[in-house]
Amino acid sequence: MPKITRKLGDKEIQVSDIDFNKLHTFIVKKVSTELASLVEDCYYPKVSILYKDLLAITHSDEKTLRAYSKKKYGNPKWRLLHDPQTTLLILIVQEFIKQKDMAAALSAFHLFSLRNYSNLLHKYIRHCNPELFRSALQSLSHNHLFVTKQTIPSSIMYLSNTLFKKYQRALVEDDAGMMLKLIMEIRHRFEQSILSFAKKYYAIHKSQQQIKSEDEKDYDVGYETKLKQFIGSVTKDITIYKNVDKKAVDGARKIIKFNRKYSEQYAKTLTNPKYTSDINSALYLLMKDIKDFSKVPTTSFLDHVKKLMSVKVSKQPLYFKKVISKIHDQVIEDLELVDWFNKLSIQSKSISRNFIAYYLAVYVQNHIS
Predict the structure, then answer these.
(1) Across the strands, what pairs with 8?
(2) What does each C-alpha distance from 64 to 4, 57, 331 come to in angstroms?
């Protein structure tokens, strides 16, 4: 099994060892699941559980990780710098970069970002109220990261991708000074967004201005839990297990009269794990007002899709049509169809976007039937 070693002074020390295939599968799946789960209000990523699993998979121990970081960085009393979880995640990122497995390297870096997000959310909002959380999201300024990037998981991935690119060379060169800057900057960048969000959260709590619709007054916790479990299952089926529902492709295509070739290409493209977060968000926004699963297989559910896709403008920072448009634009880019799409008429562009919405809707119908 490959060893993780680092040279410190004149000594070469072993820090961990890795089964790369096993670790790749574990990290990519777990990170996708955690990002998808962030569509839930007040969700704290389960990074502590994942960390224990990583210690076992890499045959690492905290004592060795702390000893390594203290020799590398100095400042033995600086707890943030010598956190063994941070040290292990950076080592894993570096090793995957060496293996030229950038998908796993980036997923491991996303886990590092999730860890910072989770820690800071616990720090600033210890006992989270879902209604207040939702109200705070809806009340953020237009230039807040959670608004500009539309969702919390998208915001996390944006910051993570940005910092990964910024520090990739330093990670390759194992530059201790730059690693220190990375640890501090990722903490600082996430703290800026979460602290301002927490201030909004507590301001709403203090003024008792929780935003609460009539539907929310009849909020059914049991149904909400069941719904999110169902949505998680469908999302994993598409993006993790890479299932293409051919019946859903044909069903959606016939509803809106869309090209068969492009329908099949769109559906296949959606099986990429990077769509996990957005598909999860879209499905939740599609189904959150459907209080009875028995309505999903009916034509009224498809009428519901039509209504959501006909929305012109919404005051909500996140709504179904907006997420579908984001998914569609990414699909077009991945398929290198941007020039083709730009030449379409307004009506044809709408049909192209609507295919994504109806495909997911019919997929859900087939999943229940």
Answers:
(1) 11
(2) 12, 15, 44
Report pTM: 0.56
Give the span between the Cα atoms of 148 and 156, in whole angstroms: 12
pLDDT digits (tens, 9 = 90+) for 201-252: 888 877 754 444 444 444 456 777 888 889 989 999 999 889 999 999 999 9
C-alpha to C-alpha distance for 305 and 287, rounded to whole angstroms: 10
Radius of gyration of the chain from its Cα atoms, rounded to whole angstroms: 22
Report the amino acid identity of residue 95: E
Structure tokens belonging to residue 268: 């296949």
Provide the token pair at 192.
Answer: 């800026």
Residues 55-71 as b or e (16 or more Cβ within 10 Å = b): bebbebeeebbebbbbe
C-alpha 293 chain-centroid distance: 26
pLDDT tens, position by position, 288-343: 888 778 889 888 999 999 999 988 766 566 789 999 999 999 999 999 999 999 99
Domain boundaries, the chain: 3-207, 214-368
